Amino acid sequence: MRLSHYFLPLLKETPKEAQIASHRLMLRAGMIQQSSAGIYSWLPLGKKVLDKIAQIVREEQNRAGALEIMMPTIQPAELWQESGRYDDYGAEMLRIRDRHDRDMLYGPTNEEQVTDIFRTHVRSYKALPLNLYHIQWKFRDEVRPRFGIMRGREFLMKDAYSFDLDADRARTAYNRMFVSYLKTFARMGLTAIPMEAETGPIGGDMSHEFIILAETGESGVYFHKDWLNADLVTSVDYDEDLQPVVDRFTSLYARADEKHDPADCPVAVDDLMSLRGIEVGHIFYFGEKYSAAMGATVAGPDGVSVPVHMGSYGIGVSRLVGGIIEASHDDKGIIWPRAVAPFDVAVINLKPDDGACSACAEDIYSRLAGAGCDPLLDDRDERPGAKLASIDLIGIPWQIVIGPRGMANGVVEVKNRATGERVEVSPDSALTMVTGDAI
Ligand code: 5CA
User: By CB distance 3.0 to 4.6 Å, which of 94, 195, 359, 432 could disulfide with 254?
Assistant: First the structure.
């Protein structure tokens, strides 16, 4: 992409309304624009990161055996009346009436909708196990939308729903999602700590939140310091028995601060850490809560029909954009982990009106694209200092800086955004450095 053809509305001033780094940086980097409280438009740079995060989530859900569907954002009130949640959900639910005076709602979650799909088509245990997910916008009329897209009213969620014949098999489905979440967040360069949690309006009797550590997080968490070096289960296979893996993780102490009781904590004071975190995922096992209320039953091997056992599994896809920035930024701007970066490498031409600089920049740009990289060419007619600052701000992992002084010596500068390291090398070596990192 050529920056001269792109839409990147950078802000020079720090927006006053933004209280935390990720909100400030997303506005300054031209990633989002507020439409109304807690509701945002995603501009090209933001949309690209959002899509990359969604794609990692999708790949890991597919790998864990879940099947992608797409359910609507607008749901009929009747489904929620069947489960009993239409009245229970309260003011957080956005209620809509259509032209025929039918009560509808903008879905805050999809347990009822997916249970309706299931009961329409599945009658026998032979169709199980089944796990259906979608990546879709939700609406919750939060009392205090804040921190930009971190606590929005409209937000993008991945929500998966598992169906099994009994509690034991449902536990297997739960464990698969548990492990797939650790893998998903690890791919984004994040350490996520699973923590026993309340089930809230979703209901049920087993639940874990996945928390990433960040100073500005809304949740306080106490945890064993070994979490910081926990093996990220990348090598675990879904065909093995996952219970020991889950047990290994859950045996390491992690508690929300309101649940931490110093008198009853098994961890020695020296090993205990207390930090703040952001909830990026939440999984629930709630058994027959919705299936019994909505008549989603299957005939078991003995021919007897029983309500199916269900769980639901959420990831805050749009919240992760902010969460990753909270976990990875400095005073110059965002530092994207390679896997979610909007572009792999920025080619910065400091003097576009210089023939040698432009020829070199164009050559590097086209060879990067040919090597399967996604490069951004800064060909704007801007001061060199402003260019370097804006590329630092938007956090591209590698920068190749081309200027007349280097050209005279046949070299360009390669900068690693995360470490700040810079080296002067030939254009060929620059290509090897940044493409080698991609592969
Ligand atoms: N149906 C269940 C699981 S699919 C569910 O809705 N769970 S949840 O309420 O915990 O939401 C799942 C995830 O969505 C949360 O872990 C969080 O990362 C994200 N999320 C929830 N509310 C918001 C919000 N207001 N803004 C941004 N992300 C949110």
Answer: 195
